[in-house]
Amino acid sequence: MKFHVLTLFPEMITGGLNPGIIGRAVQKDIISLNVVNIRDYTLNKHGSVDDYPYGGGAGMLMQAQPVFDAWKAVAGDKIPELNTASEGGTQRDSPPEGGEPGGRSVRTVYLTPQGNPFSQSMAQELAGEKELVLLCGHYEGIDERVLEEIVTDYVSVGDYVLTGGELPAMVMIDAIARLIPGVLGNESSAQEESFFNDLLEYPQYTRPEIWHGKSVPEALLSGNHKRVSEWRLEEARRRTEQRRPDLYRRYMEKTELIKRLLRDKRNHIHMIESLSRGLGEILCFEGDNILIYDKKSKVSMVQAADEASAARIAAMVPEDTELVMSTQESLNRALEERGFRLDCATWQYLYTEKVPLSVRKCEASHVKGVLQPGEASRPGIPMSQTEIRRLGQEHLDYVSARQEHNDRRYVKICIELGNMYGAFAGDELVGFIGMHREGSIGLLFVEEAHRGEGIAEALEAFMVNRMLKRGWTPYGHVVCGNEASERLQEKLGFYKAGKIVWWLTGDGNRGSI
Ligand code: ADE
After folding, report:
1. Whose CA is nearest to atom 7 of ligand 1?
2. Which residue's CA is the closest to the ligand 1 atom numbered 6?
3. What would the mean pLDDT of 30-46 be, rounded to a whole number?
4. What angle do CA 87, 89, 93 make, to 5 degrees?
5. Helical H runs in 470-508?
6. How far is CA 331 from CA 37, 205, 288, 299, 498, in A?
7. To test ligand 1's pocket by mutation, which of 109, 153, 162 has the most ligand atoms within 8 angstroms of CB?
8. What's the pLDDT score for residue 92?
9. Nearest-CA residue for atom 5 of ligand 1
10. What pLDDT does residue 186 have?
């Protein structure tokens, strides 16, 4: 991920972030930090960047021109018509194709006490961006006209006023960067966090065992992982209830909903996984009236207690939803009335075993994808001399040409998120699989010439194992009528849910992540 910081005090940002974990991630090229001095872009011969506010009032304002030109220097090449725009805040009336009004195709955050409160879920959402521009204000603020042109998000780090946006920008970069794989260099801490997602952290202790007469809690010395884990969860709960009753209420609501959904796990695995992986948030939970919304993937998952509630739940589905998952025809009708279009009916499959599937490598000509006589019920998956590797943008054309919906934008996002894997026979890509943004396994494809070699099994087993490693329950949706895929799920040991999950599509309101 690339962070661009537009500031009048670049040394604050570099001095604040370069030492430590973020600096190490920059050195390792896991993230990049581009700090731009707004003053370098002033056209004023004295180098000034501020002036008095029209209408009077205290203090000075940052002028539009240097801010716009600094922004244009980092974001302008992604906005075609900006390359021909004249100097200084050129006013555009109509949005460029594929962009938002004013051409704001690069997410640009203005740090201001008037913004939306920064939170862990906002950090998670922004961690999905490829590039982020952070604009730091100073003095009494920035000329409104340039903000209107370039800013996509107004963010505050708290209800207090600081002298500038540099500290808030650093707070945001730190919180976002640590969510990017490789930055913390420890995958299990992310796993642990998703488990304790909605709770404050439990107390921690290090040597000596006794200090000022106080001993380390006995459970932590027991060497019993289960006991340690239970103790930590209990302490995290207690601490959250005491210190942050608001968070605790949310945690309790989520726990209660997951408990309810687990009564019929097969039919609700999409909702359970969305909540337990920390993706979806609860917009409605009143008995069997349920609406979960995953902001990042723009997927809504719905359920209504009865016909009468269907219209109310459908009305609550957020406007920018791109995909609704429903298990009730009454809801489908209500959603269609709201403009969503029925896309397909699917069977939900889930893998409930905790043991990973073994992916065996063997000669294509020897095994050809069939189970060997006498193999155990959880068989090794035969696989031609094929290797599974993560796909990059160089594979975008290949995948989007073969993916069922031929949705290039969506495939691009999945690749960007590191969620697409390919099977390679030598250097040749012969099949692929992915994880959809809301968390299900999908996008499976194998070249006709290589079908029957066990490549589909190997790809899916690979995805299952990745998910199991993170403590997730692997699941996926098979379009009704796709018998080959149904056979594959059963062969791998997946269970089929009883209810159909319908997919309804909406337009959403943003063109990309
Ligand atoms: N700039 C000044 N105060 C701020 C705050 N609380 N949050 C974000 N940016 C700011």
Report:
1. 156
2. 113
3. 97
4. 115
5. 483-492
6. 53, 51, 13, 15, 17
7. 162
8. 31
9. 113
10. 63
Q: Ligand 1 mean position to 159 CA, how many Å?
A: 8
Query: Across the chain, how many H-helices and E-strands are there?
Result: 18, 20
Residue type, 137: G
Pocket test for ligand 1, best of 161, 163, 167, 173 (most atoms within 8 A of CB): 161
Question: What is the Å distance from ligand 1's center to 140 Cα?
Answer: 11
* Two structure tokens written together for 479: 């379009």
pLDDT at 511 over 60: no
Furthest CA-CA distance within the chain = 87
Percent of all residues in the chain with a pLDDT value above 70, rounded to a whole number: 86
Locus of tokens 């600081």? 162
Q: Beta strand 131-136 with 108-117: parallel, antiparallel or unpaired?
A: parallel
State the DSSP code for 96. P
Segment 223-237 shows an average pLDDT of 96
Q: Judge contact between 476 and 434, C-beta under 8 A.
A: no
Residue 179 one-letter amino acid: L
Output the average pLDDT for the chain. 87
Measured from the CB, is residue 498 less than 6 Å from ligand 1? no
Pairing of strands 495-505, 341-350: antiparallel
420-432 pLDDT per residue, tens: 999 998 889 999 9
Q: Is 7 in the pocket of ligand 1 (CB under 6 A)?
A: no
Q: Which amino acid is at 466?
A: R
